[in-house]
Model the fold of this input.
Amino acid sequence: MIIQEIAQAVELLDKKKALALVQQALDQGVNPVDIVQSGIVAGLEGIGKRFEKQEYFLAELMMGGKISQACIDLVTPHLPKTATTKQGVVVIGAVQGDLHDIGYGLVATQLELNGFEVHKLGVNIPAMTFIDKAREKNADIIGLSAFLVTTIPNCNEVIDYLKDMKLRDKYFVIIGGTETSQEKADAMGADGWAKNAVGAVELCKRLMAKKRGMAQ
Amino acid sequence: MIPLIDFQRRALTGPVMKADEFDLEFAMKVRELTAEYEIKYNPEELVVDDKTADAVFQAAVQLLADVGVYHLDTERVIKYTREEIETIAKEYRENPSKHTFGRGKDAVTIEYRTSTDKRPPTLYAGSWGVADEAWFTEYIQSFAQEPTIKAMGICAGLAKLGDIKPKAGTLSEIYVGLWEQKQIKEALARVGRPDMHCGLLATVSSAAGTMAMIGPGLREAHNTQIGVHIIPEMKINWNQLVLAQFCRERGIQPWQSSMSMIGGLCRNPADASIGLVANLLGQISYANGKLCSLFSNHMDGKSATPATQWAYSAAARACERNIKICIGGCASGVLAKTPFTLLQGAAMAALYTASGMSYCWIAGATGIEARYNGEVMNAMAGMDRQKANEVILAIMRKTGEHAKEVKGNTAKFPDVYDLATVKPKPEFVAYMEKAKEELAQCGVPFK
Done:
């Protein structure tokens, strides 16, 4: 019962209530993995559905991300060491020269809502910053956003650095943005391209499944 | 006016904030103001009334006063008082905007106009998007050779020149940009309009690259504009401020444009209309330009829906009545081998004309489409608001009927123009004529 209440509080963006319920559940000895999976993550899925129905908008997605992170932070010390709450780790930003942040911000938020640990780097990010952050956070995926024809080559640059540093196999690289395409992603040797935020989530899930498959 | 140098202080001393916190504050405040000022989207009334327009303006002033403009480099908020914003708007209102572009016989003056103005908006339409070097010059020429096009708001850019891809902030950006300027000059020379205005620099986007394009025989004060526009929603960095200063020193009219996305931080057209005007007020505070283009779209990129049209009209009319700056619009859709190609842009051109637009900087994907869109603007100018609304709704319904024809019929410039003669192919002209007939049936009173 309390698990469903957590899910509902997250979905309805009631941070105070969600945190209180999570604490209450922990005090009652509810399995912390269930709190995360059936409570917080289920609430996030509800937010996603409301977004699709246009009942929620970008601001709600952002709020949902913040609320769920606060809840997960509360649960994390109680989780068994082997438990994982995340789908994968993504480092994402707009490449150097590009200042457009709504598109990549939406992708980042959707990924967070779908259980990815996301590190948003901001806009106008030099190639080496993506790589340094990916190494620091032990990322699985590097997401590159480029909205202008003149900034798309800066996606290539990240891939070129990864190759030259013998790190290309360590990370999946995905690209997106108005002037990008699957064809351009293939030409530069990226691991994927998505047209929009929903597509980016599916792409990241596919890539993580591939990685897990490779690891087995 | 706030002295430009004061933005240095504001950008370095304003409240520290992360970009996503700023976004959230913007989104929640715009909702609050939409409710407080009772601004409501009406899909049956796309040309917005005076009362709604004034409410949008007041809400936008409050939005800017409450949230400010975010500086991406310093991660601080540039703050304004409500009095400062009202003073800026008043100074504009008391000196309705106008500016002359081009030189000699190729000069054109763009002026503030109202929604009921009998003068049509200036056809200031250029090529746009990504072109190929094989037909870049002819593409520019297709616009420059149209006598009714008085200036070009923008020229298309290249994704590749030979093996070189333009990369922002590097030598390749300048290399490709200089080639483009040479070819634009060639196109203008071919049609005998050497001093025509060429609008916003397209491929070149970095501050250094932009400055490298300015000089005798290249872009000069009479034939260029430089982008200093706010990034949606309400964000700038040093580039915009530095380039605003550069424009001031060189006598170049800055390129201002305001965009708000429906379904992003703005939920709906009412939110977006406030965002559009607040973005405009923010950028005229540092750029002091005479023109500003408005644009709204949905998250999926659609920009010719009743919702985007309403947002445009509400914002344009708010500016018409309260700022008196020259407002521009972008009226174009998919280039396709069907009458749809013109109808979609024509609905926008008609709405913008009836909403007080002064110029149309993109009016179709080719020169001939711009010509026909110009005829639509000429026909719609001075039309009563209610009548204009009926005509626009009729055009949008007609556009919807043609929408299914687009799949499999999209085109590129060489598909619809003969590159040797730079004339539209007969079948493309036939689509235009068919679209014109349908527009007339919708009530467009062609002259």
Notes: Residues 152 and 362 of chain B are 8 Å apart (CA to CA). Chain B has a mean pLDDT of 96.
